[in-house]
Design goal:
- This protein is mainly α and 136 residues long.
- It has helices at residues 2-11, 15-32, 35-51, 55-72, 75-89, 94-111, 116-134.
- The longest helix is centred in the last third of the chain and has 19 residues, at 116-134.
- The mean pLDDT is 95.
């Protein structure tokens, strides 16, 4: 519930309040040992931090979410973390971003998740940008 309030506040543009709710939720998830919940909250906290321009901190949260999701074999949160990490590094490390998006796409297609189409579009956009740069 606290994490959901964080998402709602982020969507309303109040990132400071959103971050407080995410951090409260994260503390609780860690206290009760809910690893799935921790991965989810870390992904949402990372998204909130990224929305506020705090890309390094966002990347740290998504990296931790990815490690937890892989450890507990939670593919949905793994794909969310990969997608967010790829988005954050697209401009600085396009090769790694592509790798993350390709893995994300595989997971989302395997799971039948509609968000796979958006990932495929981002990869196609990268291909188009690369082709345009090769012709210059």
């Amino acid at each position: 519930m606290l994490n959901d309030l964080g998402v709602a506040y982020r969507l309303c543009g109040d990132r400071a309040t959103a971050e407080r709710y995410h951090r409260d939720a994260l503390r609780i998830m860690r206290e009760i040992g809910d690893r799935r919940g921790e991965a989810l909250v870390r992904n949402d906290l990372g998204t909130t931090l990224a929305a506020g321009g705090r890309s390094v901190e966002a990347g740290e949260q998504h990296t931790q979410a990815l490690a937890i999701a892989r450890r507990i074999k939670h593919r949905y949160e793994e794909a969310r973390a990969l997608d967010a990490l790829a988005s954050g590094m697209r401009g600085t490390d396009p090769s790694q971003a592509r790798s993350h998006w390709e893995r994300c796409l595989t997971i989302r297609r395997d799971m039948g998740i509609p968000e796979a189409a958006a990932v495929a579009a981002r990869l196609a956009e990268m291909d188009a940008e690369q082709a345009a740069g090769a012709h210059r």
